[in-house]
Amino acid sequence: MIQFSLKCDHDHRFDSWFKSASAFDALAQAGHVQCVVCGSGKVTKAIMAPRVSTTSSADKNDPAAKPQVSALTKPRTEFEKALTALRKEIETNSDYVGTNFVKEARAMNSGDSPERAIYGEARLDQARSLMEEGIKVIPLPFLPKQSTQ
């Protein structure tokens, strides 16, 4: 896994994790990387400083040494706390339909499927198409846990 500092064409900056540098390139080219603030699909890598571990090998072997809290285990900012709460709310009160999101949204809109809160995966062009059809959708500022495991 690798963490990149990213920025969109509106200069919003954010971090995200990817399997590899080539995985980021493939996802960005396919239109699957979007700004967490405005939803723009024009996202590039920003200049970032390398992370250097400050824990010595002696600290790792010392049972009395206090473990450092990983940045991935605890939200650092109010925005991250709000994003964590939003994710929990959506995952608790909605059905994950995965890659069937577009099909299910259209079926609910036409009355062929019962209306309910759903979330899933769609390409940017598919989401735009749904909106043009009058189907209300909103991009989520995170990937569903099912697709990240």
Task: Annotate the secondary structure layout.
Elements: E1 2-8, E2 13-18, H1 21-29, E3 43-45, H2 57-61, H3 78-93, E4 95-98, H4 101-110, E5 118-120, H5 124-132, H6 145-148
InterPro entries: DUF1178
Region (Disordered): 52-72
Pfam family, one: DUF1178
Give a description of the structure.
The protein is an alpha+beta fold and 149 residues long. It folds into two domains: 1-48; 75-149, no CATH class. Helix content is 36%, strand content 15%. The strands form two sheets. The protein has a three-stranded antiparallel sheet. The chain has a two-stranded parallel sheet with strand order 4-5. It is globular and about 60 Å long. The two termini are 13 Å apart. The mean pLDDT is 83.
